[in-house]
Amino acid sequence: SAGNINDNNWHTLTMVLKNETGGFFSQTVYVDGNQAGTSLLQYGALGVLADASFSLGAIRGSASAEKFVGEVAALRFDDGALTASQISSLHSDYLGVIPEPSTSLLMGIGALSLLVIRRRRAV
Predict the structure, then answer these.
(1) Whose CA is closest to 14, among 95, 97, 93, 82?
(2) Residue of 28 and 5 predicted with greater confidence
(3) N or C: which end of the chain has fewer CB within 10 A?
């Protein structure tokens, strides 16, 4: 389960399409680096994915009310199926290092203390 991704926070969404045997392909979806679901689907009438529609920011075949409202910061296509560990790593790289609130608070207190010390020396 993807949980609630409509929470005013940035998320990474990854879809991996992988060729399987017998005219099938797997479609695995990851949300924030964690696997959210997998489906086994059959190729289209031509035996390729080319005759399947693709939507970015909308549910395929849905009414206009189900279109994505927001921003897409990046879009990436790879020429091979990524592994779960590669996807987790990409998610971590994308988010970067986010400081904990306590770290920011300590930095703020330190900066304020430095200003007070400098002010006392100037007087």
Answers:
(1) 82
(2) 28
(3) C
